[in-house]
Amino acid sequence: MSCNLSKAAFLQTFRKLSCVHSQLLLLRGVHVSQFKPPVVPTDIDPFPLFMEEGVQTILNDITGIDLKKTALLQPKKLPLKPVLRAVPDKELKRLQADSFKKERSKIEQRPPFMRARKEISCELARNPEIAPVMTNNLLFIDTSAFTRSERANKDKVVVVRDTEGTLRTATQEERDRAIQIAFPVRGRTIFPSSFFKPENLHNALQRCRYSYVLDKVCVQYDPDHPEFLRITKEIYDYILERREFDALRGTRHFGSMAFYLSLCHREYELVLDMLERKLIVDVMDYIRLHRKIHSQEGSKGSLSKPLGYDKKNFEKLMGLYMKRITGNRKKQAEKMVESLLEAGLPEIIKENLSQRELIDSYLKLETNVY
Amino acid sequence: MKPYPGAKLVVRMARYGCTNRPFYQIVVTWNRYPRDRKIKEQLGFYDRLPNLTGEQVLGLNLDRIRHHFKHGTEFTRPVLQLLGIVGYFPIHPYTLVEAKRITRRREELEQKLKEKYLEEKEEETDKIVQDESDQSGEEVKSESVDIDHSPSTDNQTKTVKSDVTNLEEALSESITIAKKASVLKI
């Protein structure tokens, strides 16, 4: 075994792992050379695709809602006394509906997948006669945004007067710092903490704290910050290598991860994972999403048609999907599909749909709070 | 509504922070009120000391500044200077005066250091000359004085020439050290 964990830590992580593949990898010690990290294609602009309604609904459906997991993942500061209440059925339903709605609103705040932002800096004025007075750069931020209606960070004016006397708009790093000084976001530090250094990140990931790290990254950086992209890519690649997709299922990062994987043409492992867990409706949705993302300006791009979830459509979709796969993978996938057909597809589909309907019914219930 | 007869509104800097650590809030008050107390409105902040990244940070609510400027509040000179440096107002003439002053001080410093350096060099060469003359005087007393001095004078001129070329290199170091040591903005 070539891992750095102690015996107790090893057992802990082993229990937390959700997938046989990752458990095997942990036992063997990970062979880094066999894994090819995915490459993001540069020709597709991901952000407008991501923000489409159809895409967002699919991502919502794929993540689902798992209240137990989110309750486990919450950081606990003090041990809370359990609150016991006797409640009639209607009230119970309402309370459950409240929690479902809260969860769904949290999940919908998923970090979008964007390209890295561009460096903007242009000169506004040149006054070399002031240069002797400027011993340091002067970083200026206009705090009038407090009194105005627009809140976007891009509209905030940040300007720097150099030691040579040139007035210029600030670089992106300077802008971030200045905006954090004047309009602080809770949880964000001005200078990035050593939590995001590779060694410490790796430590956290080894203990399977994926969504914890991702939440911290979302707080610290904006989604178009190059550091954000680098760290999330690292985490998603780590998860992909170990096929630990179930760790994120139910959190708000699952959707962005699924989008990222299908962008980089690495959705196969996720599809397999879903088939193994018998989430056939999710598989169908995900393959539709994948085809939509890589469609070439045509009829295949539309997601508006409501798909009937039955055996025929499933076989059709899987057939279309497996045209693209070759070799070992095809055989694996075919085996899976065969085993599912033997086990009884329509019943499984019924189960999945009933689960979804449950969630929908809770979300539609009228409650006072949400 | 005026708090006392003859009250005027003023935009100025109120010094907060601690001993040896100034931090200014840019503030609208009545002109006779104490410097730090009874503020009507806060318009911004100014941190004069450089932070970890070597910057002085200034934040201003330009909408409100504009509003107060329209309604005729007095702005003190430092506030106007800052606004000029930032680019919202034209550059204040006092900043140009300050700049000139600083350049003049710098030149005077450089002059002083040059003179000092040259003096030191002369002393050293004088010392060398004296040592050599003492030695040569002890060895050969009968010979004339001129012949004894000639090699040393040649050396002196050579050293002076090389000194001139090395002057600037050696001076720059001492100038930077003097600048860092000086309390004023030189």
UniProtKB/TrEMBL annotation, chain B:
Subcellular location: Mitochondrion
Domain of life, source organism: Eukaryota
InterPro entries referenced in this protein's UniProt entry, alphabetically: Ribosomal_bS16, Ribosomal_bS16_dom_sf
Annotated Gene3D superfamilies: 3.30.1320.10
Biological-process GO terms, alphabetical: mitochondrial translation
Predominant localisation class: mitochondrion
Keyword Transport on entry: no
Presence of keyword Ribonucleoprotein: yes
Signal sequence bounds: none
Gene Ontology MF annotations: structural constituent of ribosome
Comp. bias regions, Basic and acidic residues: 120-130, 138-151
Chain positions covered by the region annotation Disordered: 120-162
Keywords: Mitochondrion, Ribonucleoprotein, Ribosomal protein
GO (cellular component) term, any one: mitochondrial small ribosomal subunit
Residue ranges with Polar residues bias: 152-162
PANTHER family tied to this protein: 30S RIBOSOMAL PROTEIN S16, SMALL RIBOSOMAL SUBUNIT PROTEIN BS16M
Family affiliation: Belongs to the bacterial ribosomal protein bS16 family.
Protein name per its UniProtKB record: Small ribosomal subunit protein bS16m
Organism per entry: Magallana gigas
